Amino acid sequence: MRVAENLNSALHTLMDTRQDLYLLGEDVLDPYGGAFKVTRGLSTRHPGRVLTTPISESAITGVAAGLALCGDSAIVEIMFGDFAALAFDQLLNFASKSVSMYGSRVPMRMIVRCPVGGGRGYGPTHSQSLQKHFVGIPGLALYEMSHLHDNLAVLEEMLAREEPCILFEDKVLYTRPMHAVRPPFTVENTGGVARVSLDTRPDCVIVAPGGMAHRALAAMYSLLMEEEISCTLLVPSRLYPFDVDVPAAPHVFVVEESTAGGTWGAEVAHAVHRRHWDRLAGPVTLVHSADSVIPTAAHLEREVVVDETVIHRVIREVIRG
Amino acid sequence: MTTTLDRALVPKLDDADLTLMLEIRAFELKLLDLFSQGLLNGTTHTCLGQEYVPVALRPLLTPGDHVFSNHRGHGHYLARFGDLEGLLAEIMGREGAVCAGVGGSQHIRRDGYLSTGVQGESLPVAAGVALHLARAGSGALALVYIGDGTFGEGAVYEALNIIALWRLPVLVVVENNGIAQSTPIAANLAGTIAGRAAAFGIGHHLVEGFDLPAIRTALEPLIARVRQGEPLIAEFATHRIGPHSKGDDTRPPEVLSELRDWRALYAAAHPEQSERLDQAARARVEAVAADVIARPPSRWAGP
């Protein structure tokens, strides 16, 4: 099963089982079923609760917050995550604030789904990884879709938090297979963190969100085969708040697609330093895209966006010197 | 304007309405007084001159209706709940505060009432609440108070479009006081609010003056239609006779003197009733203030 199918199936299950759940977004109705076809079939089954909206990211996020205030649940699809910038006020100043600013906890069951990331030639305003812009907002939890996490469980966890959540969905994952991990690596999922490892003690730990996992896995495989470097990969479903628990290893890398500056990885690195400073051979290494807009042309985009080659090179350089 | 003319223009209000309007006035004046004494933290926005707007709407609302207020919301809250103590405790961060002192003057939530501090932000949220209410088939509505200045925000138009498209039971009450903080409407708003309503095919009703029974008679059938999914913008032409927040009114004296203050007009027309109820209102507010000031700080269980 592909990741988009898994997500679509999860949405179907949620809409079938939760009569108080609404789904709102632009162009989400059948036969179109959303720009990435993730909402396909939902409006046919639930015409009253799957609502296609005007091109109004701020308003639809506000409508979701209003439904949540009344005890309903709501999922908003932002067509391209970049457009979540237009909903920032509703998320920062209303939905997340409402959880606590009225003096007692107000449950707010709402999820904003944001397709993000480059690699598909959509250009500077349709390819960004916006996670870092939402880190550190009280009452707002950040998740990232991954091929190692079942989307139904992730969506249910988000609703159970009773606070606004953003689900970042790396667009390149939609067409990739679920649960694929190449031997000799194995995967186990504990507490929302997928751990991909070998039997041996690792030379390094890679922390990467879902959109980066397949690129990190490719680098881990080539590092093992070509350099005999053994890596353990941690893929957290929830990016923030994130209680990082890194297995013992001399080197830690945080890999993400975000461009440079104020990254999620810097936040993770700080937590790893505080907790594990004594046992590290050196500071955590951040691997991310360049300090640049995301170009459209494929050859230019490849120069900016992190891929498995970059991950392989950085890890080899740090460990082999 | 002569007293004789005023009397003709100013129909008598019943004691309950006038008492509420005067209590809101006394409350707001007390806040400015407490500020000048250094007893209030932060900022506050008073509704001096606009007190009658929520009082006029009060009997037209049902307990199931949701009210969305804004930064200038004390009158909206008091007209809904009459809770002087809880509101003052919230503003002062004292025991008994409606929201434990976390929200303060402009972030208050209580049974079907919610205020936020960012312009235009509540309209989309009200649309979501109205969607819920419409689906529940309760006949309840969402009322959103905004000002003329709020029409500068794009969120207003996104929400009006959705409200009209989805036929949501939303009543937008515009308190058009002609000034956004320090900027007059002439520098703020192209065209008219009526024109903007028309652009969305949303009904518009202009309310002038403070003849509460007449206002209610006119609005009642329109609000009944809102409950059936015919949204409405009710624009009250009103006057903010005080500062935006505290002592920041830069309007020149000749402009201020031309503002029509319902209280002065009413007192001139109906001095005996006005004086009698005003004394009682001020006495009640003084007693509440003395009580709240003496309370310990509010306690918050935390986020």
Tell me what you see in this structure.
The complex is a heterodimer of chains A (321) and B (303). Chain A is 33% helix and 19% strand. Chain A is of the alpha/beta class. In chain A, the strands form two sheets. Chain A has a seven-stranded mixed beta sheet, sandwiched between helices. Chain A has a six-stranded mixed beta sheet with strand order 7-8-10-9-12-13, with helices on both faces. In chain A, strand 9, helix 6 and strand 10 (231-236) form a beta-alpha-beta unit. In chain A, helix 1 (3-17) packs across helix 5. The longest helix of chain A is centred in the C-terminal third of the chain and has 18 residues, at 210-227. Chain A is globular. The termini of chain A are far apart. The mean pLDDT of chain A is 97. Chain B has twelve helices and nine strands. In chain B, helix 5 packs across helix 12 (271-293) and helix 11 (262-269) crosses helix 12 (271-293). The N and C termini of chain B lie far apart (55 Å). Residues 1-6 of chain B have low confidence and may be disordered. At the A-B interface, helix 3 and helix 4 of A face helix 6 and helix 7 of B. Chain B: One of its GO terms (molecular function) is pyruvate dehydrogenase (acetyl-transferring) activity.
